[in-house]
Specification:
It is built from two helices and three strands. Strands 1-2-3 form a three-stranded antiparallel sheet, covered by helices on one side. It is 33% helix and 21% strand. By secondary structure, the protein is an alpha+beta fold.
Length: 75
């Protein structure tokens, strides 16, 4: 039986595509579209879980990630 878990994906536009990041594990990927960057990040995470041992997962895993907007004076 396959177990699933939810993670955060931050996707940013870069010059010629998109970069996706999972901050909980500090794993990133990229793609030409938002969906491709998201899909490639899912694949990268699945490959990580297939190959990493438990200690590496525990060492990398950040269990509390907070994403918020900030209002900053810029001028």
């Amino acid at each position: 039986m396959t177990k699933t878990k939810q993670f955060t994906a931050i996707i940013e536009r870069e010059k010629n595509g998109y970069v996706s990041l999972c901050p909980e594990l500090d794993i990133a990927s990229q793609g030409n579209t938002i969906e491709e960057a998201r899909s490639n990040l899912v694949e990268a995470l699945e490959l990580f879980f297939e190959t990493a041992d438990r200690s590496e997962v525990q060492d990398r895993l950040i269990t509390e990630v907070f994403i918020t907007r900030l209002e900053v004076s810029v001028g």
